[in-house]
Amino acid sequence: MSEYGYRRKKIMQAIGEKGILILSSAPEVYRNGDALYPYRQNSDFYYLTGFEEPESILVLAPSRKEGEFILFNRVQDKDKEIWDGPRAGQAGAIKSFHADQAFPFSEFSAMLPALLAGREAMDITLLLHEMRLLKSEAEIAVMQKAVDITDSAHRRAMQTCKPNLYEYELEAEIMYEFQRQGARYPAYASIVGAGRNSCILHYVNNQQKMADGDLVLVDAGCEYQYYASDITRTFPVNGKFSGEQRAIYELVLASQLAAIQTIKPQSSWQAAQDVIVKIITQGLIDLRILKGDLTSLIEKQAYLPFYMHKSGHWLGLDVHDVGLYHVNGKPRPLEANMVLTVEPGIYISGDIEGVDKRWHHIGVRIEDDVWVTDTGCKVLSANIPKTISDIESIMAS
Ligand code: GLY
Ligand code: MN
Ligand code: MN
């Protein structure tokens, strides 16, 4: 609660006495009929309140005499609470969530004109998102916990995997480990793609049988106490990399390790991307998948059919977290306490022309979550098996 209070204070200082912040909770969303999706609070709302109920509105009105932090939320309702469980109500909003004042949600419209009187319109989304981009010690600790749970999930998937399982069976192993450890939901739909599906970047169908000889790409991360982890590991369904799979895997791994080396204050995600592009392009030349010289192939972006995304993204309350990627038209310099993913990949689908068949349907992505420190970086997910020998040995165990 003290950290939410600190964040509110900081944002109120920034918006000043003429400003006001008004933020709505996430809506409840029906999945079908009268069945709702599991409720998930809006990340900005949660960041400033820790309040998880729907039908809520947060108002921050700096220097308002009657109170600066106002919560409009659901009233307590005996009948509804019999079905859906307890609600904080207005007393709880004040006592447990430290609101200065709390009112029923239904009173918001009537109170709005008075709240707005003398205040100016401004968009503080950017400001709020810049705050979210730099993580506190407490946030890093929760993110490490999310990664640690995801670590056991990926290990479990590797140990369970064998030919003729369905992709969803691996997904189930992953979900079991998440939930068993208190992470009720994944931070995004788990991607479990074997064989040709490993080349579909956000494949979430997960219904194919996994064949002996295929690679399986598992991009799965839990959400723990609202914070995302986002990890990809790729491994052979039968536990042993083939020659071609090994060659592509080693190449992606080399590019990922080199990219992680670039992560430090004053560097940028673009530096990571440049290193990845260079190593992947050179590697594809060495394997005779691309023909030509390095510089002109990079200029022509000849790697794009194989590597068509960026090096990674900010990570936090949202998996693709908030915060600008460019400032003054240039890739943003990294700063201590940003967290980002580093996730190069090579995807050789069956329909890239001129590629020998033996490379087809090899899709490899390796993704880690990286915390920028004062002096360099710390890979939060460093313990998750990643080298070929570590993967083969855990799969054999
Ligand atoms: N799992 C989505 C991503 O890696 O960005
Ligand atoms: Mn990612
Ligand atoms: Mn991912």
Features of this protein?
single chain; 397 residues; alpha+beta; Creatine Amidinohydrolase, Chain A, domain 1; Creatine Amidinohydrolase; 4-stranded mixed beta sheet; 3-stranded antiparallel beta sheet; 12 helices; 17% strand; binds glycine; binds manganese (II) ion
Q: How would you sum up this structure, described in words?
A:
The longest helix is centred in the middle third of the chain and has 24 residues, at 137-160. The chain has helices spanning 2-15, 43-49, 78-84, 89-95, 108-116, 125-133, 137-160, 167-180, 243-261, 269-286, 294-299, 388-396, and strands at residues 21-24, 30-32, 35-36, 57-60, 69-73, 101-104, 185-186, 191-194, 215-219, 222-224, 227-228, 232-236, 326-327, 330-331, 339-342, 345-348, 362-365, 368-372, 377-379. The two termini are 44 Å apart. The model has no long low-confidence stretch (mean pLDDT 98). Helix 7 packs across helix 12 (388-396). The protein contains 12 helices and 19 strands. The radius of gyration is 24 Å and the shape is globular. The protein has 2 domains: 2-130, Creatinase/prolidase N-terminal domain (Creatine Amidinohydrolase, Chain A, domain 1, 3-Layer(aba) Sandwich), CATH 3.40.350.10; 134-396, Alpha-Beta Complex (Creatine Amidinohydrolase). Strand 13 (326-327) and strand 14 form a beta hairpin. The protein is of the alpha+beta class and 397 residues long. The strands form 7 sheets. Strands 1-4-5-6 form a 4-stranded mixed β-sheet. Strands 7-10-11 form a 3-stranded antiparallel β-sheet. Bound molecules: glycine and manganese (II) ion (2 copies). One manganese (II) ion binds at residues 219, 230, 232, 367.
